[in-house]
Amino acid sequence: MPISNETRQTVAELDRKYEAGFITDIETDLAPKGLNEDIIRLISSKKGEPEWMLEQRLKAYRHWLTMPEPQWAKLRIPAIDYQDAYYYAAPKNIDRPKSLDEVDPKLLETYKKLGIPLREQEMLAGVAVDAVFDSVSVVTTFREKLHSAGVIFCSISEAVKEYPELIKKYMGSVVPYTDNKHACLNAAVFTDGTFVYIPEGVRCPMELSTYFRINEAKTGQFERTLIVAEKGSYVSYLEGCTAPKRDENQMHAAVVELIAMDDAEIKYSTVQNWYPGDEEGRGGIYNFVTKRGICKGKRSKISWTQVETGSAITWKYPSCILLGDDSVGEFYSVAITNNHQQADTGTKMIHIGKNTKSRIVSKGISAGKSDNTYRGLVRISGKAEKARNYTQCDSLLIGHTCGAHTVPYIENRSPSATLEHEATTSKVSEDQLFYCRSRGIPDEEALTLIVNGFCREVLQHLPMEFAVEAQKLVAISLEGSVG
Amino acid sequence: MLKIENLHATVADREVLKGLTLDIKPGEVHAIMGPNGSGKSTLSYVLAGRDGYDITEGSINFMGQDIGEMEPEERAALGLFLAFQYPVEIPGVTTTTFLKTALNAVRKARGEKELDPASFLKLQKQKLTELGMDADMLKRGVNVGFSGGEKKRNEVLQLAMLQPKLAILDETDSGLDIDALKVVADGVNALRAPDRSFLIITHYQRLLDYIKPDVVHVLAKGKIQKTGGPELALELEQKGYADFYDEAA
Ligand SMILES: Nc1ncnc2c1ncn2[C@@H]1O[C@H](COP(=O)(O)OP(=O)(O)O)[C@@H](O)[C@H]1O
Ligand SMILES: [Mg+2]
Asked: How distant, in Å, are the alpha carbons of A355, B98, B142, B147, B153 from that of B137?
């Protein structure tokens, strides 16, 4: 029997609506496939890096060769063929554009499709954007205004050349290349990323934001972000990520380092929407990210907020080292998995200073055949007098074929510390869905409403401009999970 | 308005409604009384289209359409409303967001334009004032931490906002003290209109002192056993359901 048009249409509709799943047809400068010292030399020379940077990369690469894959997460990760990927891909026509007018219009079109208006006049008031396309930072907006406030906001490649002292001092100081295999690979092959430096006493006059986009097939993206907040400064930073739909898996191994001095505050928000793969679990991004911040100074504060909806596999634990007395670490997380997605995510709060406080609020939502694990470590050293931690982990299940797991690790060596841990697991109940539907709210919308309610506490911590976007993302990620 | 004919329905493979017939005309207020477990809530769920409540025989006609196969949201868009015996909690979703989502979903389904935020807030405030309710509850999660009375008032607020053609009130009086009962009854009475009908399900006669029904039915054994005027409710109050229990057993 021939396939009817209707069948074809139904199949097409069943295909998950991943709105960012288009490919930009643009000429690309690709390094040869595979990973070896020559590739690393090539990346370094393409970027016109100084010799010391190349040496650091090679040192990391040699160490990487000796490292095993991390094994402790509750993830099924197929063996990764590191030789079957490209480690450098750059859109051809952009050799550091001086202004937006020099940027390839196709690129601007891509970002527009993604809802990221690069043109300053179209931009959300007060948000400066750095956009990283495959391996290269394409454009950074609002530089002038930031510059006059003394804020440095530029691509990491530029920073290596223009602020070598700062980079030498801080890069790798929070996440050393020896930390784990993914972070080590990043140290060897990182291609771009963002550098932010907020001088003493400055309150960054706008939200800073970076959008990452993987476009090329079989390309890994290995960006590095480094944020340094000097005494008494404040910055709020947001990253967003997307990638086209592809049948093969793509690797994303990023490293983010945050450093907060006395009385400084860094608020770091992520809306992660990498391609999650299709209903059968084909394709999707492997998201292996090492994010860590250090509250170096007294009364400093680092706050991580993440909304993780994409990626086939998420392996990510944004952490805080609370070194300064009275410093504060926060972790607010929403992780949604659907279909065959797997997420193992959480945080580490390492209390070293006196009176340090941490707060963890994690909301895991699992649907389809997915698996969602919260993994969190709270470590309180003997010196951390009167340290406090509050942890709340809530899991929400949609359907019967998904899994939710909570794995807390607590190591306390301080008798005066206070730790509180609450965990709940619930299902979206048929009662709730029926109640909404009896009021006229269709089932998918009802589910979105209920899930957004469940995540509210976390979404409230996102910068306002992005909270709405995140709510829509919740709706898109849950498509097809009821009925 | 609503015409139920020879309705048989099963829940968890058990026949609970066994040939129920009912006819409600526009503007009428009908009361259904019956002992616990007689199938009152089942009837309300079957009417609203809840999954797991299956019609095995007979038909439900509402607003000139057979609604037996319709989804709950489609019935709501047609103008059917059920005030729950046990309103459900939805943590993190404010009452205001819930009301707005529901109202706009219904408007959209009817091909009307969604209300802009300002008009919505105005309407909400007006209804709140009419019902003498506290604006504070709008900011709280739907029914989360509400007292019994607040939950029932919230049902009446939703009823007032959605302006249905037929409102089914399932034991809205249960668990209310006399003051709360009056507030709820006043709210319902204010909504009585020539083109709006009510089906009031209750175990006790008390509520009917405040909401005067046109017709009273006794439900037992999955069927309407007796139909009369308001005096039937008083009679039941005195005699109880003993007669019907005997038959039901
Ligand atoms: N979901 C259900 N599963 C199994 N039995 C049910 C269910 N709902 C109702 N019943 C049964 O159907 C009968 C009628 O219940 P119900 O409609 O709630 O009565 P009422 O509202 O009049 O007290 C009862 O015997 C009850 O146990
Ligand atoms: Mg009942």
From this structure: 37, 12, 8, 11, 10
